Automatic annotation (TrEMBL):
Keywords: Cytoplasm, Methyltransferase, S-adenosyl-L-methionine, Transferase, tRNA processing. It catalyses: guanosine(37) in tRNA + S-adenosyl-L-methionine = N(1)-methylguanosine(37) in tRNA + S-adenosyl-L-homocysteine + H(+). The keyword Transmembrane helix does not apply. It comes from Arthrobacter flavus. Belongs to the RNA methyltransferase TrmD family. Specifically methylates guanosine-37 in various tRNAs. The gene is trmD. This is tRNA (guanine-N(1)-)-methyltransferase. Homodimer.
């Protein structure tokens, strides 16, 4: 997969050199390039923002540097069709595990990191010809810019690419893979500071262990995220789940 990120703080994205995603880049599974928006300015002060029409607080990102940067990303695209352009914004659609899976199927993703009060809206209209433009939010709170959101989204998508996570089975039993939160996990010692572990986990009875974990997933989800239970497809929950 090819990923391009445009930002006025390219150093923010240095974390993508580390850990699993850094390894995926080294292994050639992910071709990730970060671009400095300021290198697409043409004035002496490398200006990327200006005051908002209509007044109000804060600054707005000027359209022309964005058009030049995004044109360059589009020109270099290896994709057949329009690449997906994610525009991180608290005013976007909420990013989910399902969205991560869908994005992991794409050959080319681009991210446009806004700062200040956002990017001149006309850029998104203009970019529609070159990209499948999607404003996306991490959730209902406000960050200062899109960079931290891109770190989260690239990690969530990148770990789904074939070969990035060593044991693909670990993608199956994690939170949100089946619409529920994951079950609690324990490791040695079995007695730690006076606390034991659920005895079923020592039973060697795999059917009972599976049922215990399923019950815990349901109990946890009901307690912490009841909203997720509403969204489950009909028939997902067994009688045993409902009794848990
Ligand atoms: Cl994607 N961007 C910004 N600036 N703030 C956010 C966000 C994104 N998601 C939640 N808050």
């Amino acid at each position: 997969m090819r990923i391009d990120v445009v930002s006025i703080f390219p150093e923010y994205l240095a974390a993508l050199d580390l850990s699993l995603i850094g390894k995926a880049r080294q292994d050639g599974l992910l071709d990730l390039r970060v671009h400095d928006l300021r290198s697409y300015t043409t004035d002496r002060h490398r200006t990327v923002d200006d005051t908002p029409y209509g007044g109000g607080a804060g600054m707005v990102m000027k359209p022309e540097p964005w058009a030049l940067a995004l044109q360059s990303v589009s020109d270099a695209s290896p994709a057949d069709g329009r690449p997906v352009l994610i525009v991180p914004s608290p005013a976007g659609a909420v990013f989910t595990q399902q969205m991560a899976h869908e994005l992991a199927e794409e050959s080319h993703l681009a991210f446009a990191c806004g700062r200040y009060e956002g990017i001149d809206e006309r850029v998104l209209e203009w970019a529609d010809e070159l990209f499948d433009v999607r404003p996306v939010s991490l959730g209902d709170y406000v960050l200062n810019g899109g960079e931290v959101a891109v770190l989260a989204m690239v990690e969530a998508v990148g770990r789904l690419l074939p070969g990035v996570v060593g044991n693909p089975a670990s993608l199956v039993e994690e939170s949100h893979s089946d619409g529920l939160l994951e079950y609690p996990v324990y490791t040695k010692p079995s007695d730690w500071r006076g606390r034991g572990i659920p005895e079923v986990l020592l039973s060697g009875n795999h059917a009972r262990i599976a049922q215990f974990r399923r019950d815990e997933q349901f109990r946890r989800t009901a307690q912490r995220r009841p909203d997720l239970l509403e969204g489950l497809p009909a028939g997902t929950l067994s009688k045993a789940d409902l009794a848990a």
